[in-house]
Specification:
It is built from five helices and five strands, in the order βαβαβαβαβα. By secondary structure, the chain is an alpha/beta fold. The chain has one domain: Rossmann fold, CATH 3.40.50.2300. The protein has a five-stranded parallel sheet with strand order 2-1-3-4-5, sandwiched between helices.
């Protein structure tokens, strides 16, 4: 199994730290970023296969743009109030999954079972 780089953008630093700890043993690296610009730059620079994005930091249109710009990367979205409508909208925007931000196990599972390409490339 090939290990992928993960880029993580979360508004809650406690959630981010839990995800870094949970993902680190299973992936090549986890890079925590603090803005959409950093997320985009880090995906491109490190050819990250997985991006975990807090939907409170980015509108759905940004998820759609990221999915278009980085078709090789799997995007897992999180939100503290995830519901079925939001899940559907996230999937329609290009996310591999949408998970409640408090459910670390579900986020890690979604990230590790998504199917990124060998490497992500900027369009």
């Amino acid at each position: 199994m090939q290990a992928f780089d993960v880029v993580l953008l979360q508004s809650d630093s406690r959630v981010a730290q839990c995800l870094v700890s949970a993902l680190s043993p299973a992936v090549a690296s986890v890079r925590e970023v603090h803005s959409l610009k950093e997320l985009r730059n880090s995906i491109a620079k490190h050819r990250a296969g997985i991006a975990i994005l807090d939907m409170e930091t980015a509108p759905l249109s940004e998820v759609q743009t990221l999915a278009h710009e980085f078709p090789g990367a799997s995007i897992v979205c999180t939100h503290r109030c995830a519901d079925e409508e939001m899940w559907t909208a996230g999937l329609n925007a290009g996310a591999a999954d949408v998970c409640p931000s408090w459910d670390t196990r579900a986020i890690v599972h979604a990230a590790l079972t998504s199917k990124p390409s060998r490497c992500a490339a900027a369009a």
